[in-house]
TrEMBL record:
Residues 6-53 form the Helix-turn-helix domain. InterPro entries: HTH_17 (IPR041657), SinI_DNA-bd (IPR010093). It comes from Sumerlaea chitinivorans. This is Helix-turn-helix domain-containing protein. GO terms for molecular function: DNA binding.
Length: 78
């Protein structure tokens, strides 16, 4: 089973509000467990998946989807 994070921890990790985390849960973009009426936990795996989707989408929108990994820079003085 995946590690469970609080909504506050997810919000801090993603640099968004707790309200936005709840919206992502409602949209089905984050997997969560309702432990009690006032306690919700989000799976770490779903947070990582969301971050990976965002990075892929960002590369695609910028036309950089063909880039696999950044290249090392050479020092021109060598």
């Amino acid at each position: 089973m995946s590690e469970l994070w609080t909504v506050a921890r997810v919000a801090k990790f993603l640099d968004v509000s707790k309200k936005r985390v709840y919206q992502l849960i409602q949209q089905g973009r984050l997997d969560s467990l309702k432990l009690s009426p006032r306690t919700t936990r989000v799976t770490r795996e779903s947070v990582e998946r969301l971050v990976a989707e965002g990075k892929a989408r960002q590369r695609e929108e910028l036309g950089l989807d063909w880039i696999v990994a950044p290249r090392k820079r050479r020092n021109v003085n060598e």
